[in-house]
Amino acid sequence: MMHFFYLLFELLFQVYFITSFRLIKRSRTVYLENYADPNNYLLNALYKITILYYALHFIVLLRWLVIFTLGSGEFIKWIITLDSFAFLSCTSWYLFVALYKPEFFRGVNSKLESIKDTVPKEKPAATISEEKLQQMEFLKIFMQTNEPYLNSSLTIQDLAEKIQMPVKDLSTLINLYMDKHFFDFINEYRIEKAKEILRDPSQKDLTILEILYKVGFNSKSSFSTSFKKHTGTTPTAFRNSLS
Predict the structure, then answer these.
(1) Which of residues 137, 153, 179 is at a domain's end?
(2) 10 with 79, same domain?
(3) What is the pTM of this model?
(4) Do 160 and 166 contact (CB within 8 A), yes or no?
(5) Contact 53, 90 (CB under 8 A)
(6) Distance between CA atoms of 131 and 128, rounded to whole angstroms?
(7) What digits encode the pLDDT tens for the residues 162-197?
(8) DSSP class of residue 192?
């Protein structure tokens, strides 16, 4: 009877992990809609830890299925020992990550909502009002003139304050009417600024690393990924093509 409850307990864990994966996926979407910083280390670490624990619990589930159907034996005792050691190792790694990155427990602001949860799922282009068109034009001019994207830690809340628009309205404008995540919206301007610098003969001595920091990125890998996404080539190849 006890084995049955252990088996049921592990089955409930599978439901928990499925829910966890869905929440992480939602958090990633919210992150892209509200933050311009491309460093999503925390979500990636959480995703990896969840996968690891899911794999371990799935093995435990299989073990209890074997015990429940065939009974226990010496082999099962060895499996239990290995399970315990694996869980101890994973928990130690989790604590190491938490100590090394204390902000791991803060993550994405829980009060933020996905744009899909706050506005209609789609808005036909024909229904875009003159007011929305004016807001989009104002936003584009503000971005080009004031260059807020140069701030590497820029959030949608920061930008909303600068243009004196409610955060929800700005999020709707960018994500729904302009059909872009805030993450991509900001990085487009950063990449255009980087291309401008790369074309400028007076700044030819700047390294790629200096340029990426200058335009608001925090890491070379993120800059290279975004640059290739928007231009189809790498920063170095783009610079060489200008020679």
Answers:
(1) 179
(2) yes
(3) 0.66
(4) yes
(5) yes
(6) 8
(7) 999 998 899 889 988 888 889 899 999 999 999 999
(8) H
